[in-house]
Amino acid sequence: MFILAALLSVCALRIQTRLGAVVLLLPQQTLLIITAIGAVLAAISGHYADGVPRPTLFILADQFPPILIAAAHTVAIVVHGKSIPGP
User: Fold this and answer.
1) How many Å apart are CA 3 and CA 58, to the nearest integer?
2) CB 15 within 8 A of CB 21
3) Cα dist from 69 to 38, 64, 65, whole Å
4) Total domains present in the chain
5) Own/partner pairs for 71-74, CB < 8 Å, 24+ apart?
6) What is the mean pLDDT of residues 54-61?
């Protein structure tokens, strides 16, 4: 599934329509959002998915990169979509 999402995102770079590019980037974006949601939920609950308890700030600091990557990827999709000419 991860390889397919990566291949579709590479294809999105070559497609010449905004809708097509965004549709091809959606699987990768979905995986990143799921990861970010899991990271936020782990920080809120105070333990990782495997049950290891840690302070909320520790988990948030540890899981900040996936949250940041999901947000940055969203911005990158918008910028890429705007760079493609046409409707």
Assistant:
1) 31
2) yes
3) 13, 9, 6
4) 1
5) 71/36, 73/28, 73/29, 73/32, 74/29
6) 95
- Predicted TM-score (pTM) of this structure: 0.86
Q: Supply 63's token pair.
A: 């899981």
CA distance 80 to 87: 13
CA distance 43 to 36: 11
In tens, the pLDDT along 14-47 reads: 888 988 888 999 999 999 999 999 999 999 999 9
Range of the domain at 75: 2-83
Question: What one-letter code names the amino acid at 33?
Answer: I
Q: Which amino acid is at 71?
A: A
